[in-house]
Automatic annotation (TrEMBL):
Protein name: Lipoxygenase
Pfam families xref list: Lipoxygenase (PF00305)
Keyword annotations: Chloroplast, Dioxygenase, Fatty acid biosynthesis, Fatty acid metabolism, Iron, Lipid biosynthesis, Lipid metabolism, Metal-binding, Oxidoreductase, Oxylipin biosynthesis, Plastid, Transit peptide
Location of the Lipoxygenase domain: 41-732
Any GO BP: fatty acid biosynthetic process
């Protein structure tokens, strides 16, 4: 039974209300009695004497003993490594390395499930049974129903063209014409009639019945970018703009070293010097300034996946139907505040007896050069799509946040004010992560089957965690400074000066960051008056210690972890956590279908090498558009990803948004209630700021003819790309 709340009436001082929000199991299944506390929050040292033992007993019950397989009715939070992504017992080729617990594959921890070990690989868990999450982390009935309905619609959309490919015995079938892609949105696709009424036809019929008002034709919703300007994906200006206002605004950084040079071993990967030379860049920016001036004035920016991807190239290229390069893209900040793409460099390391292949592509008006530039953009965007999904999105939000949630439930009593501050930021994350392990990031799942790194996708995210992830750089200001995009300036708004003044993600994000930080500061300072109160709080110190030493155990000895000694330390830590769970996730998630729903704009995979890698091949020049379609994802890959992105880009009817929903426990204290009201007002101001910015014609990265306005950090919007605002948590 789901227990929402309990109200005790008839008491001398009025009713007492208990906010339960928890599933209660029958006593024959769970004979232990449950404890529920009132809205009143207490630090451990301030807990009434009669409640102290109950407070500790409740925490002990949530930790478990680390033994046995978890049941669906359990409420136990514990840690484990990612040892359930592969399925070697089903097929040997589905074996995958364990992520976490080793120097080779460091990784955050997930929730322990305790399933039996694999017979083939004793280090891995079997994927039999359920993907356990503690009972109170499950979706609500409203969320579950909307999720099932939306998934049914999207899977149906993806299934239809896939079935045609299956019938043709060609799962690698690509789109024959660009008009075939348009048909997905304009005319829809008929439900195919299978010759043999087998499982596939039954699945189609079941899905049709699951979709209200389904008929014989289904269509994908027209993505916002395609709806506004179906040819915008071809424009270099839009290619550059989306690095600042698209779904992956976290990768672009300032060029701080010149000439560009790889840090990889040249004996293994070939000459480290980049082919993007001073002479080449000079030709591209000669109408503006010299290269030396551009470096001095900090006008050159880069997205660099060269060293991250190059070690995977030879392995990925042995897999049929995909390819890979080390890649980087260089941009110049023009006087009107927009970015001009200068060059894309693609590198193949020495392999199969061949030396390193390295080539730079630049924008061109000459026919062959123009098409090679389009191919280079397709390859680079496939790499960017993979990095976005595996690192900017999955690793830095979903994956990194799960340990915070586990530690919060294990070490902070539900009476603790910090637990109650963090609670809405934890909603549904563990469940959505479990679903991701089931179908998205698992062996032969959606990511592996549709993204360039293929079976090495999760290994790639492990390398990124090892080389790039630092808690102290997950705060927005620290992230911008680390990427060289901003410098500290006490006289500038938010204390930062942006080197790219019109950077929509950063501009809106900094306003939201400040609002979040002020709300957290008001809350924390109400309960912690001085440093000694922080240092003497055993639950709080155990919580932060466990996040570092258990949740992110493979990085526990890093010197950059913040200390927790003062209220200011606590404010910084919590603001970072809630930023990642709310704004960071919104920025990289809710615009996915708007920009990647039309996959030529953001292909997830490049299936063939650059046409010029083999100089003996010239036939592609006869029909370069057909060759590009072969490079793009197949019908199955494209529609599968489109369906998933459609699901991920939508909000649940019971979504809880920043500044809209106030936890009942916050309203118990008048000072906290007033602080929340101020927070809500700041978010309303942010909405007005975003509306004004999107109407400002001088801000060319935010709008213009046929341009999707930047709205993903708009708190209360019910229009536009994101739907309905910034949720508290990673709930989808």
């Amino acid at each position: 039974m789901y227990l929402k709340h309990i109200v005790l009436n008839g008491l001398p001082n009025g009713p007492i209300e208990f906010n339960c929000d928890s599933w209660v199991e029958p006593k024959f299944d769970k004979p232990e009695k449950r404890v529920f506390f009132t809205f009143k929050s207490y630090l451990p040292s301030q807990t009434p004497r009669g409640l102290k033992s109950l407070r500790e007993k409740d925490l002990v019950s949530l930790r478990g003993n680390g033994k046995g397989e978890r049941k669906t009715s359990d409420r136990i939070y514990d840690y484990d490594v990612y040892n359930d992504l592969g399925d070697p017992d089903s097929k040997p080729e589905l074996a995958r390395p364990v992520l976490g617990g080793s120097k080779k594959y460091p990784y955050p921890r997930r929730c322990r499930t305790g399933r039996p070990r694999s017979k083939i690989d004793p280090l891995s868990e079997t994927r039999s049974g359920t993907f356990y999450v503690p009972r109170d982390e499950e979706f609500s009935e409203v969320k579950q129903n909307s999720f099932i309905t939306k998934t049914a619609e999207s899977v149906l959309d993806a299934l239809l063209p896939s079935l045609e490919a299956v019938l043709l015995d060609d799962p690698g079938l690509g789109f024959q014409h660009f008009s075939d892609i348009d048909q997905l949105y304009n005319q829809g696709m008929p439900i195919p009639k299978l010759k043999n009424q087998g499982p596939l036809q039954s699945l189609v019929l079941r899905l049709v019945k699951a979709v209200e008002d389904a008929d014989d034709v289904v269509k994908f919703e027209t993505p916002a970018m395609f709806h506004k300007d179906k040819f915008s994906w071809l424009r270099d200006e839009e290619f550059s703009r989306q690095t600042l206002a698209g779904v992956n605004p976290y990768s672009i950084k300032l060029v701080t070293e010149w000439p560009l040079k790889s840090k990889l071993d040249p004996d293994v990967y070939g000459p480290p010097e980049s082919a993007i030379t001073t002479e080449l860049v000079g030709r591209e920016i000669k109408d503006f300034m010299t290269v030396d001036k551009a470096l001095e004035q900090k006008k050159l920016f880069i997205i660099d996946y060269h060293d991250l991807l190059l070690p995977f190239v030879s392995k990925v290229r042995r897999i049929k139907g995909t390819t890979l390069y080390g890649s980087r893209a260089l941009f110049f900040l023009t006087p009107d505040g927009t970015l001009k793409p200068l060059a894309i460099e693609l590198t193949r390391p020495p392999m199969d007896g061949k030396p390193q292949w390295n080539k730079v592509f630049t924008p061109s008006s000459e026919a062959t050069g123009l098409w090679l530039w389009r191919f280079a953009k397709a390859h680079f965007l496939a790499h960017d799509s993979g990095y976005h999904e595996l690192v900017s999105h999955w690793l830095r939000t979903h994956c990194a946040t799960e340990p915070y949630i586990i530690a919060t439930n294990r070490q902070l009593s539900v009476m603790h004010p910090i637990y109650r501050l963090l609670h809405p930021h934890c909603r549904y994350t563990m469940k959505i992560n479990a679903l991701a392990r089931q179908v998205l990031i698992s062996a032969d799942g959606v990511i592996e089957s549709s993204f360039s790194p293929s079976k090495y996708s999760m290994e790639l995210s492990s390398v990124a965690y090892d080389q790039q992830w630092r808690f102290d750089r997950e705060a927005l200001p620290a992230d911008l400074i680390n990427r060289g995009i901003a410098i500290e300036d006490p006289t500038a708004p938010h204390g930062l000066k942006l080197l790219i003044a019109d950077y929509p993600f950063a501009n809106d994000g900094l306003v939201l960051w400040d609002a979040l930080k002020q709300w957290v500061a008001d809350y924390v300072n109400y309960y912690y008056k001085n440093a000694s109160m922080v240092q003497s709080d055993p639950e709080l110190q155990a919580w932060w210690t466990e996040i570092r030493t258990k949740g992110h155990e493979d990085k526990k000895d890093e010197p950059w972890w913040p200390v927790l000694k003062t209220p200011e330390d606590l404010i910084g830590i919590i603001t970072t956590i809630v930023w990642v769970a709310s704004a960071h996730h919104s920025a990289v998630n809710f615009g996915q279908y708007a920009f990647a729903g039309y996959f030529p704009n953001r292909p997830t995979i490049a299936r063939i090498n650059m046409p010029c890698e083999d100089p003996t091949k010239e036939e592609w020049k006869q029909y370069p558009d057909s060759e590009l379609l072969v490079c793009f994802p197949s019908e199955i890959q494209a529609t599968k990803v489109m369906a998933i992105l459609d699901v991920l880009s939508n909000h649940s009817p019971d979504e809880e948004y920043l500044g809209k929903h106030m936890e009942p426990t916050w309203g118990e204290e008048p000072a906290i209630r007033k602080a929340f009201e101020r927070f809500s007002e700041r978010l309303k101001e942010l909405e007005k700021i975003i509306n004004a910015r999107n109407k400002d014609n001088s801000l060319k990265n935010r709008g213009g003819a046929g341009v999707v306005p930047y709205e993903v950090l708009k708190p209360f919007s019910k229009q536009g790309v994101t739907g309905e605002g910034v949720p508290y948590s990673i709930s989808i």
